[in-house]
Amino acid sequence: MNIEVYYFSGTGNSLYVACSIAEKINGTLIPIASVVGQSKIETTADVIGIVFPAYLAQHTGVPVMVEKFVRKLKNTNSRYVFAVCTCGGYENVNALPTLKNLGRIIRKSGGKLTAEFSVRLPMNNLQYPPYVKHDHDKMFSDSHKKIEDICKRIKKRKKNKHQILKSLLNLTMTPLYLMLKNLYVNDLKKKAKVSPDSTLSFPELIYLSDNSIFSTEACNGCGVCEKICPAGNIKIINDKPIWQNHCEMCMACTEWCPQQAVNHWNRKEGVTYHHPDVKLSDMLINLK
Ligand SMILES: Cc1cc2nc3c(=O)[nH]c(=O)nc-3n(C[C@H](O)[C@H](O)[C@H](O)COP(=O)(O)O)c2cc1C
Ligand code: SF4
Ligand code: SF4
User: Fold this and answer.
1) Mean pLDDT of 174-195
2) Is the CB of 87 inside a 6 Å radius of any atom of ligand 1?
3) Cβ 56 under 6 angstroms from ligand 1
4) What's the predicted TM-score (pTM) here?
5) Out of 92-96, 102-106, 197-201, 254-258, which region has the weakest mean confidence (pLDDT)?
6) Nearest atom of ligand 3 to the alpha carbon of 209
7) Residue 53: CB within 6 Å of ligand 1?
8) CA 135 – CA 275 distance, rounded (Å)
9) What CATH topology corresponds to 195-284?
């Protein structure tokens, strides 16, 4: 049985989940960043897993690189394809619409998302809205149980559960999502530093979001940010990082800088986040 678990991760939450699942189901772990540059991604695996974070869930939720990867993934229609979305907010209103969108993208490419799962883990330093409770210790302990359960389901090749309930929930939330969509785009334009009248597409605005990421005096030119960026979006020039406007908004450069010398629009000074059980060296394995 050939099992492949693809992942995209900026601050290690999704890597932790992907790694735990791959270990338990005997799968091969593959960074999406290492294959997304290929013109098409052919796989002979019987089981394909896709583990990724929710980004701007009420817009599309699916990170640009993950969407690109899924569009290039071939021969999936007769396989068991599962996805696990990690998110910082409540799963029903963040992971759920995101997984629905992922399912749509997979369908458009001729495949089928057989099973959808989600795991709630800490928000990666984009502060929580004040009404969201966030007990990190509880999230970590709950995530272990959730991963166990997900693996049992994958081993039994279970299909989606509560599909009708999920669709109903999505339907009732749709007007709110549509409202938030415009707010997100306007906010992205500010981060991208383009005119409010700009007609750039959503992915183009995401790529330009690094116009609001910058390094401080604390930078010593070590080059970690250049190595860790899954998009190859940072070049060290004269010992300073220069962002190349092809950003995925993954927060790896801001959260893994050993000097805490990278800031962005919403970063609390002196506070960094990455999954506690993921090391910098784990993040760098096979990235390119
Ligand atoms: C650009 C961006 C947008 C995000 N948007 C959402 C969101 O809409 N809802 C949510 O629950 N979490 C959101 N998050 C939080 C991440 O989904 C969450 O922390 C995830 O587990 C991070 O995974 P990673 O450590 O593998 O990168 C966002 C994170 C980033 C960086
Ligand atoms: S990781 Fe931090 S200290 Fe190192 S080059 Fe990048 S910004 Fe500078
Ligand atoms: S520049 Fe930073 S935030 Fe953007 S993709 Fe690279 S590591 Fe992620």
Assistant:
1) 87
2) yes
3) yes
4) 0.95
5) 92-96
6) 4
7) yes
8) 14
9) Alpha-Beta Plaits (3.30.70)
